[in-house]
């Protein structure tokens, strides 16, 4: 994996090759990563993995025609051929009136803020094994745990670089650390599985492996002997582990490309009151040590904190340059680059601001409801907003969390769900999407 300065040199050189090959404009992306992980099962070493990868992606424009091509061969000969092939492909491609680089006058410029994304610690296999062992030991020590799917610990590093033919060239790097445990409680047909995991940019920000393992064990034991729910309309409370997925559906529907294709359930709702007053959802790409923090986006535009929902109102779309041209707007700094192709759109570090009620107060008036701790399947229609997911969790009876329940479905429409959503005050900050416990009244639950 290249260091940031070398990665910048490599993408700048590739862009220059593309211009010499006949491209009117071009951008190039370098992505390099390394990772190491250790897995323990039933106290024995199960797996040690190390991986390293490097990839260059080139996008070229010939007039209004464009093409993208990538390679994991970083040799000079391979990159020269890559540039020639990309330009030849672009000349044969159809015209796209919205294609092109980001507006030059909008490009980000150095100096970049120090977001503290890279840890200098480099734990080796022995240290990772000790963390994984401690997590699994703690999980297996919980009374009622009968088997283990293992404990694991990992460390990784990544470098990203972007260069464009109209003057942008920059690189970022960061690290990641993770600990997890997954165990089984009970016997035979009554077995139940659950897990716990945490990840962070810096190893020091992780909780102890014993805390993670204990949580995994306790979660598995609590799921033993699940009952069944009766079908009906009732309040559904989403645990923070799954509540973030609701915000993910919102962000997907806010994509400018989805709006341009008229393939979003938020169509024609720019500025609309879709949540209750007081609800605020913030995207903060420059959060210190944030899991998805970045000083510039995938087109070289500056990032900035933004309220996606302000006092319940939608504040506009998330747009890369192509979507902005199509919609007559301005790119918003949310472009992301994957392995090849044109940029996509994504938010970064998201959070739903907490409400005023504790979880106990949030559920106090629920006579019959359900707390969802796991969602299953992908039954969400991004065009209509129709929502239907398999689930498991716990009954709520007369304002109290009761026994576990499984094999039921929760359904509704996201527009109605957002309007009814009420957050608790238990927001924690350790995910890319941080959401407190939320309550949504009036959902259909299909059980027995």
Automatic annotation (TrEMBL):
Q: Where is the Metalloprotease TldD/E central domain?
A: 121-224
Q: Which domain of life does this protein belong to?
A: Bacteria
Species of provenance: Novosphingobium aquiterrae
Q: Which InterPro entries match?
A: Metalloprtase-TldD/E_C, Metalloprtase-TldD/E_cen_dom, Metalloprtase-TldD/E_N, PmbA, TldD/PmbA_N, TldD/PmbA_sf
Q: Which Pfam family, giving just one, matches this sequence?
A: PmbA_TldD_1st
Q: What is this protein called?
A: TldD/PmbA family protein
Annotated ranges, domain Metalloprotease TldD/E C-terminal: 231-447
- What PANTHER family does the entry give? METALLOPROTEASE PMBA (PTHR43421)
What does the similarity note say?
Belongs to the peptidase U62 family.
* Annotated Metalloprotease TldD/E N-terminal domain residues: 26-90
């Amino acid at each position: 994996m290249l260091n940031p300065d070398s990665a910048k040199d490599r993408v700048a050189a590739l862009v220059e090759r593309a211009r010499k090959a006949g491209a009117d404009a071009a951008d190039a992306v370098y992505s390099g990563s390394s990772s190491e992980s250790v897995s323990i099962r039933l106290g024995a070493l199960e797996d040690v993995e190390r991986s390293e990868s490097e990839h260059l992606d080139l996008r070229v424009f010939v007039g209004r025609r464009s093409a993208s091509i990538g390679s994991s061969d970083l040799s000079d000969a391979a990159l020269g051929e890559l540039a020639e092939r990309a330009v030849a492909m672009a000349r044969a491609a159809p015209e796209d009136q919205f294609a092109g680089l980001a507006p030059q006058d909008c490009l980000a410029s150095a100096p970049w803020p120090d977001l503290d994304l890279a840890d200098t610690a480099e734990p080796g296999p022995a240290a990772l094994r000790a963390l994984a062992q401690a997590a699994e030991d703690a999980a297996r020590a919980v009374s009622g745990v009968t088997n283990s799917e293992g404990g694991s610990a990992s460390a990784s590093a990544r470098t990203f670089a972007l260069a464009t033919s109209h003057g942008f060239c920059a690189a970022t790097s960061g690290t990641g650390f993770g600990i997890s445990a997954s165990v089984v409680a009970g016997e035979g047909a009554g077995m139940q599985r659950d897990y716990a995991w945490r990840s962070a940019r810096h190893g020091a920000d992780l909780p102890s492996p014993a805390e993670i393992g204990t949580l995994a064990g306790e979660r598995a034991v609590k799921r033993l002997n699940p009952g069944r729910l009766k079908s009906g309309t009732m309040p559904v409370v989403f645990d923070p582990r799954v509540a973030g997925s609701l915000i993910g559906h919102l962000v997907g529907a806010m994509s400018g490309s989805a709006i341009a294709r008229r393939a979003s359930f938020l169509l024609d709702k720019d500025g609309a009151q879709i949540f209750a007053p007081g609800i605020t959802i913030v995207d903060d790409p420059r959060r210190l040590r944030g899991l998805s923090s970045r000083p510039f986006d995938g087109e070289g535009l500056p990032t900035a904190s933004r309220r996606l929902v302000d006092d319940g109102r939608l504040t506009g779309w998330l747009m890369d340059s192509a979507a902005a041209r199509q919609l007559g707007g301005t790119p918003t700094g949310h472009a992301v680059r994957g392995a090849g192709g044109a940029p996509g759109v994504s938010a970064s570090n998201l959070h739903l601001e907490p409400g005023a009620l504790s979880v106990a107060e949030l559920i106090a008036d629920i006579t019959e409801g359900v707390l969802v701790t796991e969602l299953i399947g992908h039954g969400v229609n991004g065009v209509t907003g129709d929502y239907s997911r398999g689930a498991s969790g716990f009954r709520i009876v007369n304002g109290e969390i009761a026994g576990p329940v499984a094999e039921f479905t929760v359904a509704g429409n996201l527009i109605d769900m957002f309007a009814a959503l009420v957050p608790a005050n238990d927001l924690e900050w350790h995910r890319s999407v941080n959401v407190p416990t939320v309550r949504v009244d009036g959902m259909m639950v299909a059980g027995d």
